[in-house]
Each structure stands twice: as structure tokens, then as C-alpha cells.
Amino acid sequence: MKAGNIETMMLSVSSPSVGFLDERSARVRLARTINKDIAQTLREHPGRFGGFATLLLPHASELLTESDHAFDELGLDGVIVETNTDGEYLGDPSVAPILALIPQ
Questions:
Q1: What is the rounded distance in angstroms from the CA atom of residue 93 to the CA atom of residue 87?
Q2: For residue 71, is it left (φ>0), alpha (ψ between -120 and 50) or beta?
Q3: CA–CA distance, 36 with 13 (Å, rounded to integer)
Q4: Residue 104 pLDDT exceeds 80
Q5: How many domains, in total, are found in the chain?
Q6: pTM for the structure as a whole
Q7: I want to staple 77 with a disulfide (CB 3.0 to 4.6 A). Which of 1, 50, 65, 82 is the partner?
Q8: Whether pLDDT at 103 is above 80
Q9: Residue 1 lies in a domain
Q10: How many angstroms separate the CA atoms of 54 and 33, rounded?
């Protein structure tokens, strides 16, 4: 970061996020672990990093729980949501209730 004159770097997980796991409960545990690890890095290096939480599409209940935890408890800066998980895209009607919660 120093060599590239980068003051702050945003941390997140790229595709396939937690979607490569078959079991829903395993996805939930991995997302929580990732988010806690990112938060720990932010605490250890204040001002050097920001972090985006990994969320669990298409699992609405778990997504909302993890989102609350990421913002309220961990202090993360935003979220990462895959555009396609288990063959369901963001435009799929099953995802609409989740997207409706996002402030416009």
C-alpha cells in the first residue's frame, strides 16, 4: 500500500463468496467468520482499511441477521452481494423482498 501511495484499502470477498458451499449453515458460518476477520483487521489498522460485509443471497433471514451484525456490531462500511447465487439473480422475484429493504 505504501509503495502504491494507497492510504485506505477496502476489504471484501470476491466471487463465489460463500456460494461454493452446499450447506446453508456452512455458508452462514463462513460469512460470519469472514466478516469478523475483516472487522478485526479494521480494528488492528485504524484508518488503513475499510470493509464490506459478505451477505447470504438468496437466504433472506440469514442475510438480514448478518447485515445487522455487520453494521451494528462489527462497524463495517457496506456489503457485498453476489449478482447470482444458486442460479437466482438479483432480478429474480424471490430476491425482491430483500432489495426492498435497501434505502432509495
A1: 13
A2: alpha
A3: 13
A4: no
A5: 1
A6: 0.87
A7: 50
A8: no
A9: no
A10: 10
Query: What Cα–Cα distance (Å) separates residue 102 from each residue in 9, 13, 38, 48, 71?
Result: 24, 21, 22, 27, 14
The pLDDT confidence band at residue 69, using thresholds 50, 70 and 90, is very high
- Residue 104: inside a domain: no
**Spatial contact of 54 and 13, defined as CB atoms under 8 Å apart:** yes
Domain that holds residue 13: 9-99
- 35/49 Cα distance (integer angstroms): 13
> pLDDT by residue (tens digit) across 5-53?
999 999 999 888 998 999 999 999 999 999 999 999 999 999 999 999 9
Question: What average pLDDT does range 74-93 have in this prediction?
Answer: 86
Amino acid at 56: L
List the beta strands (DSSP E) in 1-66.
9-11, 49-54
Q: How many CB atoms lie within 10 A of CB 32?
A: 20
**CA angle at residue 63 from 9 to 10, to 5 degrees?**
0
**Centroid of chain to Cα 57:** 10
